[in-house]
Design goal:
- The protein has a domain of 45 residues.
- Helix content is 57%, strand content 0%.
- The longest helix is centred in the last third of the chain and has 20 residues.
- The radius of gyration is 17 Å and the shape is elongated.
- The chain starts with 20 loop residues before the first helix and ends in a 7-residue tail after the last helix.
């Protein structure tokens, strides 16, 4: 039986998944246009456009695990806000 190599942190470029040049270019233009928007907002926009966590990680220079956590936090924050709607002033 072969022994598995110890788990090591992979760099986004080590995943073997490649975006086409056009996809990568358009995603970078989108991110550039978002300016100072936070990591969470950028990840949400890329997810909404159909990119996977691995692809988002490549584009943002992070890992898929970080992207998964950021998206989870965004969903959780959105859920909390929808359960506690702000009252309207009349």
């Amino acid at each position: 039986m072969k022994q598995k190599a110890p788990h090591s942190k992979r760099k986004p470029s080590d995943t073997g998944l490649k975006l086409t040049r056009t996809e990568a270019l358009l995603a970078q233009v989108l991110l550039n246009n978002m300016g100072d928007a936070g990591q969470q907002k950028k990840a949400l926009v890329l997810r909404a456009t159909g990119f996977s966590n691995v692809e988002i990680a490549q584009l943002m220079g992070t890992t898929a695990d970080v992207v998964a956590q950021v998206l989870y936090q965004a969903r959780r924050d959105r859920s909390v806000k929808s359960k506690n709607p702000k009252r309207r002033k009349r």
